[in-house]
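We were asked to recover a plausible sequence for a given structure. The inputs and outputs are reproduced exactly as logged, with field labels preserved.

PROBLEM: sequence recovery
POSITIONS: 299
GIVEN STRUCTURE:
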């Protein structure tokens, strides 16, 4: 006969097994990840293309050397530098149960292809990043490069997505709907943004919708150009709103309601602590301290 203790233990083991199986079955990447590179990039769906080592298992995201590679979701990182083909590589073990591979990270000490750097924090991996360390979504984890068998090619991030920590799937759909960050900084770090674009509309509840083309982030000295995204900025009553002949010139105080669709606008945000919502530019999360509406002087 089985004892009550053994029977109870069996039920506990069975329950844990079922929970484990259920968790594994439901493991899936988030519907929206953070786009893994900050700034202007180029990529297309090259997953599965024939390569010398077999079908391409990821997507190559072309970007300038030492562009910031960002954590697609929160999780733990694992450094990997024992592959001649991958070069300096990083695994991100996402909290959703998804693994992300960051391949061909930087191994150069300069902007030239010198191959004199090692796969270490500050060269390949973000400064201060620790192997097996926890990271937040959007945190800088590395720098784009051309290590491994990409040596001498255009710098790019080979990005793979492995749901359930299993085989690679095409990450194109996730990249297409991923959240593009306006800037990268540690959580809580004070920041301010210089936003440039054109007016779309002025809301009755004290906000400004703009079509953003350029963003500069301080004190990180980050800049992104050629953006095409809508941004809803909160304009508090104590914000300075002015008319200027050109960006950077002295202005004359005006009312925000005088803004016209298509008008060039420059917004400086109030200093605030870094959050993921601020990095994404969620609606009304960014608060303006200065709004300059460009009205060229007629001649």
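RECOVERED SEQUENCE:
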């Amino acid at each position: 006969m089985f004892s009550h203790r053994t029977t109870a233990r069996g039920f506990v083991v069975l329950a844990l097994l079922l929970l484990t199986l259920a968790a594994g079955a439901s493991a899936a990447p988030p519907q929206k990840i953070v786009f893994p590179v900050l700034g202007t990039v180029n990529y297309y769906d090259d997953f599965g293309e024939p390569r010398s080592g077999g079908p391409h298992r990821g997507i190559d995201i072309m970007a300038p050397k030492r562009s910031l590679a960002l954590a697609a979701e929160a999780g733990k990182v694992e450094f990997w530098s024992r592959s001649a083909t991958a070069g300096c590589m990083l695994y991100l073990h996402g909290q959703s149960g998804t693994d992300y591979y960051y391949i061909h990270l930087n191994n150069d000490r300069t902007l030239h292809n010198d191959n004199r750097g090692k796969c270490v924090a500050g060269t390949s991996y973000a400064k201060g990043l620790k192997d097996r360390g926890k990271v937040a979504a959007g945190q800088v984890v590395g720098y784009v490069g051309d290590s491994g068998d990409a040596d001498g090619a255009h710098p790019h991030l080979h990005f793979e997505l492995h749901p359930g920590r299993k085989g690679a799937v095409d990450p194109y759909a996730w990249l297409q709907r991923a959240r593009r960050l306006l800037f990268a900084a540690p959580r809580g770090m004070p920041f301010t943004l210089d936003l440039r674009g054109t007016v779309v509309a002025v809301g009755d509840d004290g906000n400004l919708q703009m079509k953003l083309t350029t963003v500069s982030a301080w004190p990180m000295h980050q800049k992104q150009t050629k953006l095409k995204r809508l941004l809803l900025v909160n304009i508090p009553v104590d914000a300075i709103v002015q008319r200027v002949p050109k960006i950077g010139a002295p202005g004359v105080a005006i009312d925000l309601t005088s803004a016209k669709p298509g008008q060039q606008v420059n917004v400086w945000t109030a200093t605030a602590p870094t959050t993921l919502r601020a990095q994404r530019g969620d609606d009304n999360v960014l608060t303006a301290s200065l709004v300059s509406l460009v009205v060229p002087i007629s001649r």
